[in-house]
Task: inverse folding
């Protein structure tokens, strides 16, 4: 009988990683994000431009840590500020999360051993 052992990723995640998917080969697909102020959207009230809706651009990136793979995808999207700091519940976060899950299910690249 053959036993396959998948090594669990480190208990401590790299700084900035907000989610991880374990691939079938024991690497991880790591999700990170950045947010930045976006141009505001003027809001018309009555007969005047009364206010500016504050917007934030969120960029979510998923990157495979398998050596020789390094597949990556990035999505950007704008949302109204304040946005609550929950990137995985926004449009780009949802898209990248699905990609990460799908990649982790079929990627066979293993991580390079660390000393
Ligand atoms: Zn991969």
Result:
């Amino acid at each position: 009988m053959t036993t396959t052992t998948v090594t669990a990723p480190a208990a401590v995640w790299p700084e900035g990683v907000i989610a991880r998917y374990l691939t079938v080969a024991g690497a991880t697909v790591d999700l990170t994000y950045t947010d930045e102020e976006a141009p505001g959207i003027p809001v018309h009230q009555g007969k005047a431009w009364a206010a500016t809706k504050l917007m934030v651009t969120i960029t979510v990136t998923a990157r495979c840590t398998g050596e020789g793979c390094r597949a990556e995808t990035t999505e950007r999207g704008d949302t109204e500020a304040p946005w609550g700091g929950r990137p995985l519940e926004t449009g780009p976060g949802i898209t990248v999360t699905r990609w990460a899950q799908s990649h982790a299910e079929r990627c066979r690249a293993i991580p390079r051993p660390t000393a």
